[in-house]
Write a structure and sequence with these properties.
The chain is an alpha/beta fold. The chain is built from 11 helices and 12 strands.
C-alpha cells in the first residue's frame, strides 16, 4: 500500500482509466502547439483554504505520462493550508504536464475536498470526545479507495469497505428476513467469528429487539435527540454493552449534541457524497 491507500497496480489501473477518458484520441491542442522536446515546471496552488490530500495520486498521474518527471511536495498530507499555498510541484516533459493536468487535478481536488469535509466534521466534536466520525458506502463509483483514504486523512474513520467486509442488517434486510431476531440469528450462524453483527433500528421498540437478539452494534436511524439520549441510557445498563451508532439526517450542526449524548459512532454520508472538490490550480512555467 502507498500513500494513496491503494496498492501500486490498483492505483495505476485507476489512473490509466482516468487518463483514457481524456487521451483516448490523443491531445490535439498540446501536440499541435507544444514542441515534443519542451520541458516545463508546474506548481499546484490552493485557491481556497483546504486540507491537502492526494499527493501520491497527483504525482503518479504525471509519471504514467513521463516516467522521468520529478516531484516535490511542500506540505504533508492532512495539512490545512491557506489560499495561495504551494502544495506540489512537478517538472518534466511539457506535453506530459499539459496532457495530465486535468486528470491529476480531478483526482487530487476530489480527495482534498473529502479530506477538508472530514476535518470540518471532526473539528465539530466536543473537546475530549471519544466519538468517532465515520464515512459510509455513498462514494463515487470507482473512487471509493481514494475517498476513504481522504476521509482518514481528514481525521475521520471508515465504516465497512464493502458488502463482504462486515454484517450490517438494515431495514430492507429485516423485511426480507422476517424481523430482527431471525436476521441476527441467521447472520450469527453464517458470519465468521471475527465479525461483529450490526443492526439498524428505527425506534426504541426495535432497539429492545436488537438487545434481545444480541446485536454487537446498533445503528439508530433518524432518531430524535430525545430518543438518542434514551437509547444511550438503556445501552449503559447492558452487559456486554453494544456500540451505538447514529445515522440519517446527520449535519455538521448536530455533531456536538450527538457526541455529547454519548454516542460511539456518527456515520455521515456527506463526508463523501456532498464534499465539494477543493479548488486547486496548476500554474505552469517553461
Amino acid at each position: 500500500m502507498i500513500e494513496s491507500g491503494l496498492a501500486p497496480p490498483l492505483l495505476d489501473a485507476l489512473i490509466d482509466r482516468t487518463l483514457t477518458e481524456d487521451l483516448a484520441g490523443g491531445d490535439l491542442t498540446t501536440e499541435a502547439c507544444v514542441d515534443a522536446s519542451a520541458r516545463a515546471t508546474a506548481t499546484a496552488v490552493a485557491r481556497k483554504p483546504l486540507v491537502v490530500c492526494g499527493g501520491a495520486v497527483f504525482r503518479r498521474v504525471f509519471e504514467r505520462l513521463d516516467p522521468q518527471v520529478s516531484f516535490e511536495s511542500f506540505v504533508a498530507e492532512g495539512t490545512a493550508v491557506p489560499v495561495g499555498a504551494a502544495i506540489w510541484r512537478v517538472a518534466g516533459n511539457a506535453r506530459a504536464l499539459l496532457s495530465g493536468e486535468r486528470s491529476a487535478l480531478n483526482l487530487s481536488q476530489r480527495m482534498s475536498g473529502v479530506a477538508t469535509m472530514a476535518r470540518r466534521y471532526v473539528e465539530a466534536l466536543p473537546a475530549g470526545s471519544t466519538t468517532r466520525i465515520i464515512d459510509t458506502r455513498k462514494t463515487t463509483p470507482g473512487l471509493r479507495p481514494l475517498e476513504r483514504y481522504a476521509v482518514r486523512t481528514g481525521g475521520a474513520h471508515n465504516h465497512r469497505d464493502s458488502l463482504g467486509s462486515a454484517v450490517l442488517i438494515k431495514d430492507n434486510h429485516l423485511i426480507a428476513a422476517g424481523g430482527i431476531a431471525v436476521a441476527v440469528a441467521r447472520a450469527r450462524a453464517r458470519a465468521p467469528h471475527t465479525s461483529r453483527i450490526e443492526v439498524e433500528v428505527a425506534s426504541l421498540a426495535e432497539l429492545e429487539q436488537a438487545f434481545a437478539a444480541g446485536a454487537d452494534i446498533i445503528m439508530l436511524d433518524n432518531f430524535t435527540l430525545a430518543d438518542v439520549h434514551e437509547a444511550v441510557r438503556r445501552v449503559a445498563l447492558r452487559t456486554p454493552r453494544p456500540l451505538l451508532e447514529v445515522s440519517g439526517g446527520i449535519t455538521l450542526e448536530r455533531i456536538g449534541e450527538l457526541a455529547a449524548a454519548g454516542i460511539d459512532l456518527i456515520s455521515c454520508g456527506a463526508l463523501t457524497h456532498s464534499a465539494p472538490a477543493a479548488d486547486i490550480a496548476l500554474d505552469l512555467v517553461l
